[in-house]
Amino acid sequence: MSRSIKKGPFVDAKLLKKVSNAKPASAGVINTWARRSQVSPEMIGFTFGVHNGKSHVAVLVSEDMVGHRLGEFSPTKKFVRHGGKMQKEMEAKKQQAEIDAAKAAKASPAPAKKK
């Protein structure tokens, strides 16, 4: 659900203060726990360490991110892929095919260049 236009976007006051006092090139990583804070145009170029519950994930803010929340760029859950024995077999076949292709490319002589 979006926020009322009358209220304006939510940006954490401490975070806005840190951004306004620094320059993007010299600021380094600004660690924050304010995942709900929206990205404002003043934040472009800064790198934020957004906390995901375990560690801080580095997020470099660009123009496309303005209006989004900082938490959107720091996933809180680690995806463990689906599948089991069948998935492992398919990956092993794919890896073996790549190895075979590399060996074949290495074994064949390179074509001579025409002048």
The SSE order reads HHEEEH
Average pLDDT rating: 87
Q: In the CATH hierarchy, what is the architecture at level 2?
A: 2-Layer Sandwich
Helix content: 25-40%
CATH superfamily: Ribosomal protein S19/S15
The name CATH uses for the topology is 30s Ribosomal Protein S19, Chain A
Shape: elongated
Tell how many strands the DSSP assignment holds: 3
CATH domain class: Alpha Beta
Strand arrangement in the largest pleated sheet: 1-2-3
Q: What count of structural domains? A: 1
Flag low-confidence runs: none
Most strands sheet: 3 strands, mixed
Instruction: Note the gap between the termini.
Output: 67 Å
* Strand residue percentage: 5-15%
Q: Structural class, from secondary structure content? A: alpha+beta
Number of helices: 3
Radius of gyration, whole Å: 24 Å
How is the topology of this model organized?
Blueprint: H1 13-20, H2 24-27, E1 29-32, E2 47-51, E3 56-60, H3 85-107
Parallel strand pairs: 1-2
Antiparallel strand pairs: 2-3
Q: What is this structure, in a nutshell?
A:
The chain is α+β, with helices and mostly antiparallel strands. The protein has 3 helices and 3 strands. The chain has a single domain (1-104), classed as Ribosomal protein S19/S15 (30s Ribosomal Protein S19, Chain A, 2-Layer Sandwich).
Main attributes of the structure:
115 residues; alpha+beta; 30s Ribosomal Protein S19, Chain A; 3-stranded mixed sheet; 3 helices
Description:
There is one protein chain. The chain is elongated and about 65 Å long. The longest helix is centred in the C-terminal third of the chain and has 23 residues, at 85-107. The protein has a single domain (1-104), classed as 30s Ribosomal Protein S19, Chain A, CATH 3.30.860. The chain starts with 12 loop residues before the first helix and ends in an 8-residue tail after the last helix. With 115 residues, it is α+β, with helices and mostly antiparallel strands. The chain has helices spanning 13-20, 24-27, 85-107; strands at 29-32, 47-51, 56-60.
